[in-house]
Structure prediction request, 798 residues.
Amino acid sequence: MLDWPLFHTAIRFHPRLWCSERDGYYPAILFRVSDAYDGELKTLHRLYLGEDGGKAKIASPKKAYGEYGGGAIWFGTPQEGGELVKAEGPENALVCFMAGRPFVASAISGANLKNVVAPPSVKSVLIAGDRGRGAGKGKAGEDYAEDAASADRKRKVSAAITYPPARPKPNGKWQDWNNLLVSDGLDAVREALAQAEPWEDLPFGFRWQENGRGLEFLSRVVKGEDGEEEDEWDWLCSEVRFLATTLNADSKDWGLYLEIRTRNAVWHKAAIPKTDLVTSSEDIFKHLAYHGLDFNITPRAKTKLRELLVRYRPKSYALCVPKVGFHDGVFVLPDETIGDSKGRAVVFQPHKPVEHFYRKGGSLKGWQDGVAAYARGNDRLMFAIAAALAPPLLEPIGMEGGGIHFRGGSTAGKTTILRAAGTVWGGGGQYGFMRTWRATDNALEAVAAIHNNAFLALDEIAEIEPKALFRAAYALANGRQKERMQRTADLRSTCTWRLLFMSTGEIGMAEKLSEDRMRATGGQAVRLVEISADAGHGMGMFQSLHGFKEPKQLAEALNASGREHYGHAATAFIRHLTGDLERLTEGAKAFIGRFVQQACAKDADGQVARVAGRFGLIAAAGELAIAAAIVPWRRGDVRDACKRLFLEWVAARGTSGPIETQNGILQVKGFIELHGSSRFSSWHTPGQPTLNRVGFYRIFDQGGEDERVVYYVLPEGWKEICRGHDPRSIASAMVERGIINPDNDGKYQRVVRLPGMGPRRCYEIDASLLFGDEDEPSPQVNGSAWVPVGPDFTAPDQ
Prediction:
């Protein structure tokens, strides 16, 4: 039986209490809330009851009259040197009281547990917590219980924690203490309460400061004047919370997940690998200082701080990942995890500290009105924003990464559009979300890891050295660096990534590589696709000024809005994507397939199809963002912009076939234009000397002013002309186009009686076909319909 006098002052029953939620009366239990056991009334907490005696079937059966923070519902009487049991809800506190605990407090909510202060006579606190973890979505029962235990330890009160057995209810939530009483009885409650474990908040030799705002370490033990030993404590560091022990899916890469309070009362989270703690490097202190931790810089204090971080054993565990992006269905950002992590915390723990710009400012609405809205009618701006949204689709779809390079003059607006694209993911500071090519080369793996499945904006390709550009562009697109050996001769594990990067410059990759006499291959041209920064309307990158008088004013407006509003679009897009990942991924795959099929000629080279796939990916992301109301554009806008820019790229490329072959033919053409009669002997004046002759040229008079010129290239001369390419492949392509006249057996070389040389095998080139208007026709879309976009982004219009 309950001893009612012990808690009758805390509870009252009201047979008919008004409930504003239903505009009606309900029976209710009233609980007295005070900020101390013997304190004044703070507020009343209500629990509305239904006809069956349980909680009323309304949305919020529990309500408080006003603020209850720091207050509690007190059951029983404190005992000198005794214990206080703290529970969340009043029903759970009552169950603990019924189980024989003489002094119990209900904090009403989990978040308030840490604010409930035990009377001075109490020497220990038992937290009867609820089960569950917040797993990146705020906090839940076990998180609140540990916060409360930590707070009590700071108050110099010993603390322990216990939970009811881990049994899920039909609704998926964990059983609480009241559920345990109903299902198993009071003895089961007593047994569970007895399983409490002491909460060891700090290792020996460390303690919280009296105000709880920092840590101290035991400096030395001295003898006082009375001969008694006394502890001397020195300040160690500012306030820090130890959230979890981190480890990866293979139970390796252990670390510590911290929350650091800065001087201006901002909390920053940081995951630190244990490997950084056990080395002599000072990098760990740089990392802590970067996140705002103040600490004692004396050598002994720094050693003690390192010791604390190594020795501390948080009760919670978190899965750590070394790079941003998708991991088991959730998207991990440096300070946020998006998606269903199935009850476990997932945190970003890089192998090396790296500065990031995943920051937020302003609002999504402000960004939509001040940045995205100006993309309507401006293909390149719309394409850039859609490209910034596209990377989260790479991993689910299984597509490779790659880059887009805008090339043009200094006043074309390239940096403005790159900066605008970066606002999708973050910003702040002088350069927003942008980085430079030079800085990327210096820390390529760290930069790529923090932009995995995300967008990387790189300004001014001219700043990087040619060889460094070659390495960086290859690695960024391919998703890994070359493997390297450690000092121990073990093969170091390499980080991999998938990302989309966008670059700008007054020159292209081929020109930059040529500065060091390097040649851009066809594969590199596909990895970093070049698009002209000139939209062809006399306004640089723009086609529509949206009411501004000149491009400069539009650029200034974009930059001003981008400095104020940034970082919201990407997280909104990821939340939409993770909400129905499988369906939207399949829809995007189908969309991209139709885009490639309709954009490419039937005989298009595989390189062209790969680029079409990237443009299709960008179009799919943009149309998905339209459907999710993340960008204020019309359905089909991004698809059409991507179509136009892709066809523009194919036209500038000069062929939908292999670019190596096209470049080889252009090299033959350029050699003849450059050298002409200086390297080819005239058929008609064979006695005239020719240095380093590669062949002959012959003019056929066709009557009137028309002449036909034929070049006869000797085999060794052909190899020189085609240097850097496969001579046989170039000859084959030129035979196919009718530029080289083969012999009757189809061989690329014909036997021709050359002046002064007699019969020789050579390549017979028709100059009129090589230099004439033989360019391929402009690429056209296959079929009459262009990738229809339906109301749910994946279905075609009806």
